[in-house]
Write a structure and sequence with these properties.
With 171 residues, the protein is of the alpha+beta class. The protein has two domains: 47 residues; 97 residues, no CATH class. It is 25% helix and 23% strand. The strands form two sheets. Strands 4, 5, 6, 7 and 8 form a five-stranded antiparallel β-sheet that branches. The longest helix has 10 residues.
Amino acid sequence: MEKFLTPEEVAEILAVPVETLRVWLRQGKIRGVKVGQLWRIPREAVEEFTRPKKEKDFSVYTTWNRVAKAATHLDGYPGLTLLADDVPARLVPLATEHGTKVPGWLEVEIQDHTGNYGPCFYDGTGKATTLAAWVPYLPAHADREGVVIHEDVLYYLDKKGVSHKNGKAAE
């Protein structure tokens, strides 16, 4: 049987005020159950809460043409060509070959015929492109093929059809 702790016991373990812990419980930051008016927290939930957190996967699912339209709002961006047959696209954080995120930049991936997403190697006109063609001063992967876009594009994306979960863009 799972051992449950009181908010007072957990607050002491975490060295926070009891009221802070109650706020976290209401916000779902730490798992707990309400028994009548009283909170009870599984010991396992305290262990989960104190474990180092893995960085969440950030992906925005949309389509190529929505990204292309949003890109027209970005100053100095070379632009993307609209496709006659739109394709699903995913925006993911740009990372170096060592996995270090490049702040402010997203890589545009497109869905292939098998349903998997991968780097987009063409600019929409069929012309192969390198990351340096999009952002000449970009230090990471400057000679690698692909399309990148500044994260400000997220402000201009048509929200219809945009999803932040694993899956297809909503219609």
